[in-house]
Amino acid sequence: MLALWWSLLWPLFMAALLALVLWPLAGAVRALLFFSAFVLIILLRHMASIAALARWLRSPATMEVPEGTGVWDAIFDALYQNGRAQSGGQSNLNTALARFQKAAEAMPDGIVMLNDEGQIEWCNPMAESQFGISNHQDHLQRISYLVRQLPFIEHLAARNYAEPLVMKSARNANMTLSVQLVPFGDRQKMLISRDITHLEQVETMRRDFIANVSHELRTPLTVVGGFLESFADAEQIDMALSRRHFQLMQDQTQRMRGLIEDLLTLSRLESTHERMAETPVSMTEMAQTLLREAMSLSAGRHILRLEMGTDKGLTGSERDLHSALINLVSNAIRYTPDQGEVVLRWEMRGDEAWFCVQDSGLGIEPQHINRLTERFYRVDRGRSRETGGTGLGLSIVKHVLTRHQGWLHIQSEPGKGSLFCACFPAGRIIDDPDELPRS
């Protein structure tokens, strides 16, 4: 600061010193004229530097910092250094802002920047798709004018920053969003939206699953409990009638046991902690076992046939594969009328191996086929209960095949029977008979 004042005052000091030297030589008037002219020159130079500074301040981005002498050289140099620092800071700020926008655009959640008036300052592509807005066309538009759902408008007006709002998407009625307001900056708000459709579906499935399990267990428990109450209240027990009641209770108990076993199997298959055992499986032996079990289930009421198109085997879990395939076989027998035909077939189709169960049963309407692997989904609820199904068999089949990188092929026509095929990729097929377990 002292150096700045010295650079400003030393020309005046030198002019005064020269005027004092000139005074005795040329007289007081000439000395005063010399000093006045010198001060005027200094003043004009300052005014020219001030004018140059004013011109630069009007458009600093397009003009270079002026050059000066004396004190103005220090001032212009300071402005130049400050301009460079500000330019570098602005460049860094622009880079950081661009990086933030790219990160925000890549986020799986929707982000909308709102000012204090609820106007859109910026939004990412996910928010555009969820709310049906445009970052370019709807800039500084009130979001309440564009998303006109009453719960959403009330949520914005309430400025509720604590609890999220669950609402349907303005663009897709099948999408459920969780919307959260976050205050930031100078009375600005950030609107964060998340697609929770899958979570809502999982929660719905969980509620339906609990309701279905409770319903399926309540029916046999009601039957068993009713008979036990009758026995407790009876003064004399008719043994002939009791045997029939005991048989019904045993049937209902077996039904509950089957349901619980299927639930445990499904839980085990869905567990991510249990590692599947990878062993060679002889499908020739497996098919023979399934045929014997089918004969036991049918008890001579159906025509059963096994067709072996190949002797190749598989790698995987023998227990899980048996659980899946016996479900296909038992379903075919359960829903095929007496004297109907059930065919078990193991064959190669191109590079894939297919285990198919074809029946001559009642068939399935097309609208039901895509939902058959859902838990407890029944085409005919009354008919399923009569045949003793738990409603979990095809869910087990789906999970087993998924663990073996396979898939379930279903083909059916009402009145003409059904075809269920467990399909396995080439990577699961064993070509070398020596790799198969020996009996």
Account of the protein in words:
The chain is of the alpha+beta class and 439 residues long. It has four domains: 2-100, no CATH class; 107-195, 2-Layer Sandwich (Beta-Lactamase); 199-270, Helix Hairpins, CATH 1.10.287.130; 279-435, Histidine kinase-like ATPase, C-terminal domain (Heat Shock Protein 90, 2-Layer Sandwich). It is 54% helix and 17% strand. The chain has 13 helices and 13 strands. The chain has a five-stranded antiparallel beta sheet with strand order 2-1-5-4-3, sandwiched between helices. Strands 7-9-10-12-11 form a five-stranded mixed beta sheet. A hairpin with a 5-residue loop joins strand 1 (110-114) and strand 2 (120-123). Helix 1 packs antiparallel against helix 2 (28-58) and helix 8 (239-270) packs parallel to helix 13. 19% of the residues are buried.
Gist of the model:
This protein is an alpha+beta fold and 439 residues long.
For CATH, the homologous superfamily of the largest domain is named as Histidine kinase-like ATPase, C-terminal domain
Estimate the mean pLDDT confidence.
80
Strand content: 15-25%
CATH topology of the largest domain, which one?
Answer: Heat Shock Protein 90
| Number of H/I helices | 13
Alpha-beta classification: alpha+beta
Head-to-tail CA distance between termini = 102 Å
Integer count of domains: 4
Nearest-angstrom radius of gyration? 44 Å
